[in-house]
Design a protein that fits this description.
heterodimer; A: mainly beta; six-stranded mixed beta sheet; globular; B: mainly beta; seven-stranded mixed beta sheet; four-stranded antiparallel beta sheet; 0% helix
């Protein structure tokens, strides 16, 4: 029972263009969503988050959009840079058990020069 | 501030043995969580400790256990190791702020032969 899904295992984008990573969830109890970035041999690093009371959150080049009716969120990176090449994980949390994050399978993003 | 520290970085064990992994959270963080990352299952929640008490537990067999000490440091133990326990074990600490952000260590790579 995969409650958080990232259906694209990989994505390749040209430097300077927009990268869009997608995530779907099934559990209506999730009320907070986070994106993490992971390099090989390192732990995930927090990127950006969004509460279910919002539909958009922006931080520099990173924007997360939440569509609650579709149970879908996306991460936009613009412009994409070579250093953005990494695996991106979407995660969700419910108020009950807030520190328990449910992660998607990850999307490997490659930025081509 | 020092980040989350996990030791050892790499570990090789044989089936049937037991293993103890250690985690030192960021100073001031009282919540510590453990996650298992495998290529097939992604990142999965093991358990969370706060003030030396287990608050949440994931769907793992009883061979997986943990504890937290009064200084917030945490250990996890896996007994009677199986080949399928080979994974990256990640520890995360949290300041328990409203954004539910977790700070991850670099992990312990466990190989079971």
């Amino acid at each position: 029972d995969q409650q958080v899904k990232q259906n694209s295992p990989s994505l390749s984008v040209q430097e300077g263009r927009i990268s869009i990573l997608n995530c779907d969830y099934t559990n209506s109890m999730f009320d907070y969503f986070l994106w993490y970035k992971k390099y090989p041999a390192e732990g995930p690093t927090f990127l950006i988050s969004i509460s279910s009371i919002k539909d958009k959150n922006e931080d520099g080049r990173f924007t997360v959009f939440l569509n609650k009716s579709a149970k879908h969120l996306s991460l936009h990176i613009v412009p994409s840079q070579p250093g953005d090449s990494a695996v991106y994980f979407c995660a969700a949390s419910a108020l009950q058990g807030a520190q328990k994050l449910v992660f998607g399978q990850g999307t490997r993003l490659t930025i081509n020069p | 501030k020092a980040g989350v520290t996990q030791t050892p970085r790499y570990l090789i064990k044989t089936r049937g043995q037991q293993v103890t992994l250690s985690c030192s959270p960021i100073s001031g963080h009282r919540s510590v969580s453990w996650y298992q990352q495998t290529p097939g299952q992604g990142l999965q929640f093991l358990f969370e400790y706060f003030s030396e008490t287990q608050r949440n537990k994931g769907n793992f067999p009883g061979r997986f256990s943990g504890r937290q000490f009064s200084n917030s440091r945490s250990e996890m133990n896996v007994s009677t190791l199986e080949l399928g326990d080979s994974a990256l074990y990640l520890c995360a600490s949290s300041p328990l702020t409203s954004d539910r952000k977790l700070f991850f260590g670099s992990g312990t790579q466990l190989s079971v032969l």
